[in-house]
Predict the structure.
Amino acid sequence: MSYSYEYPKADHTVDAVVFGLDQDAVSLKVLLIERGLEPFRGYWALPGGFIHMDEDLDAAVLRELEEETNVKLSFVEQLYTFGNPNRDPRGRVISTAYLGLARPSHVTVKRGSDAASAVWWSLDKLPELAFDHSEILEVGMQRLRSKVRWQPVGIELLPDAFTLTDLQQVYEIILGRELDKRNFRRKVLSFGVLAPTGETRYERHRPARLYQFDKDRYQLLRKQGIDFEV
Amino acid sequence: MSYSYEYPKADHTVDAVVFGLDQDAVSLKVLLIERGLEPFRGYWALPGGFIHMDEDLDAAVLRELEEETNVKLSFVEQLYTFGNPNRDPRGRVISTAYLGLARPSHVTVKRGSDAASAVWWSLDKLPELAFDHSEILEVGMQRLRSKVRWQPVGIELLPDAFTLTDLQQVYEIILGRELDKRNFRRKVLSFGVLAPTGETRYERHRPARLYQFDKDRYQLLRKQGIDFEV
DNA sequence: TCAAAAGTGTTATGAGTACACCCATGC
DNA sequence: GCATGGGTGTACTCATAACACTTTTGA
């Protein structure tokens, strides 16, 4: 069975909006690459590239991310497909954008493939981006903000063990407002998806209890339709 | 400036999951076409087709819908992009799916283009669908159900003037559960986006007040971050 | 006068929010 | 002993949810 289409075809790319935390867990960063090829050579852009003919879109994102930045994701979901006919000077290029989250421990940026370099950029001092990537980034940020209200997104950004203050800071960064410590703790603990490791972390002051995320219990509650609004 | 890519390219289509109400406003239907061409000739499928090189994705959906079914939408948004390499026997075809809503008054299905026929199907007795369209339809249904909790989706399915009982029935259909009449009315009226037309509709029993949707006021409240959970 | 859908308020419960002080450690 | 962040409980407000009867019309 063979069907042939001879008319011109669009190209298809994937691009990833990947967020991660700074080491001090106090600011949110986005992963950008410096383009090594035309067009927009020397500009900063979202990591991504052309899909292969035999790979799924999700696989293409992970591959491109691995090739260009060596970053592995703790979370990924499809964001939106951008198809404006003029969004790419090379011609008709449709791009499916993904939202990704990475833990700090997994971030070891390397040189590779089409990218001249790859760096975590602070969201408050971004460079001009190639193509329509500013628009894509904005959509990614909106999605992150709306996700955080219903799902324990913060956990995907933190290391395996973390303190409740760490977690609260992540939520405050993403939501862009301060939260009450007592209310926050009561709320997140009431979900029953956080378990103390028994360990503590001491840095200069009173040691803080470390917690870990109980993924099985989370999946169970999700199936029961439980929301996790903070 | 010219960049040429000679490797094989995927095709790109759009498909639409379009919901509408039956005349009696008591059941939710989905718009399907009967395929007139191979592959899956004679099967039922979501309306859609190949995008043109110079048109935006949104425009492509509306065009295909117009060509195949003559249905105009009161609401449309992008749903998800399906890119499994084996989803289409013709080869690599990536499809961006859209969610659409149509008012009953706008529904006048016609013959045209690739479709042998176009019909509103009840959701509880669907035929086997072509390609991965069952999966796409399921994603559309999920999106509709999650949207209904935050946005006055019901209004996009009803005619310009409607009774509160109409509106409640729409919500009950989409949510799949019964709602309390008094609570529902208090809630939807409290948003302040419904205005009585002054008219009533009488059919056999006590006449019901007709309402219309105040779109300007709705946009205003949305900008203020107001949610519309029912 | 009866059948059928339209329309209307009150109460109880639970969630969200605001708020201030003591505790454990390093220096 | 003091500076610093860790850790805890109560009271108020507001939204949700449960619940039953009267009104208006056509037949």
In short: The first helix of chain B runs from residue 57 to 69. Chain B has six helices and nine strands. Residues 11-147 of chain B form a domain with the Nucleoside Triphosphate Pyrophosphohydrolase fold (CATH 3.90.79.10). Helices of chain B lie at 57-69, 133-147, 154-157, 164-175, 181-190, 215-223.
